[in-house]
Write a structure and sequence with these properties.
Helices cover about 80% and strands about 0% of the residues. Helix 1 packs across helix 2, helix 4 crosses helix 5 and helix 5 crosses helix 6. The protein is mostly helical. The chain is built from 8 helices and no strands.
Length: about 160
C-alpha cells in the first residue's frame, strides 16, 4: 500500500521525474522499497538515519514517504540528465549517502508535505484507501484462482 501511495505522491509532486523514471525503466519499487523496509538504514549516513528515526517515532510512517520525496527531489536535476537505468540507480544511492546534514533532510522532507498541501492525517487516509484497494485486489485474484481450479468430482469415487 505504501508503494502505491508513494507512486501517487511522486506523480503529483514530480511529474517530470516520474515520467523520466518510467522512460528509463526504473520503477520506484526497485529502490524505494529497500529504503522503506530498512527505514533508510542502508541508504542514509548513520547520524542522519538516527535523526530520521527520531522523527519517525514522533510522527509516524508519513515521515518515510516525505523523506523519500525529499531524496527524489534532491536527485531530480541529475536524474533528468541521465538516460541509463544503472546510472539513475547509482545517482539515487549517491544522493542518499550524501545527506550528512540531517537537519537539511528533515527540512526538505517537511517542505515536501507543505508543497503537496498534505497533512499526516491526509496521508493516513490515503494509506488506508490504498490498503483497502490492495486487499480488494488480492481477494479478487484469490477468487479468480479458485474459479480456475479444477473441481474434484466427489461422486466418481
Amino acid at each position: 500500500a505504501d508503494m502505491h501511495l508513494l507512486r501517487s505522491l511522486v506523480a503529483v509532486a514530480m511529474p517530470e521525474l516520474n515520467g523520466h523514471l518510467q522512460r528509463v525503466n526504473l520503477p520506484l519499487d526497485l529502490f524505494a522499497s529497500q529504503w522503506l523496509v530498512s527505514l533508510f538504514s542502508y541508504a542514509l549516513p548513520p547520524l542522519t538515519v538516527c535523526r530520521v528515526w527520531d522523527w519517525l517515532f514522533l510522527d509516524g510512517p508519513t515521515v518515510l514517504l516525505s523523506v523519500t520525496l525529499a531524496l527524489l527531489r534532491r536527485a531530480q536535476p541529475e536524474l533528468l540528465r541521465l538516460d541509463d537505468l544503472q546510472q539513475c540507480a547509482e545517482r539515487l544511492q549517491v544522493t542518499a549517502r550524501g545527506f550528512h546534514d540531517a537537519d537539511d533532510l528533515i527540512l526538505a522532507a517537511q517542505q515536501e508535505l507543505i508543497s503537496l498541501d498534505i497533512s499526516s492525517v491526509d496521508i493516513h487516509t490515503m494509506r488506508k484507501e490504498h490498503l483497502e484497494s490492495v486487499e480488494r485486489q488480492a481477494k479478487n485474484e484469490d477468487k479468480a484462482k479458485r474459479l480456475r481450479r479444477p473441481r474434484s468430482n466427489a461422486s466418481s469415487s
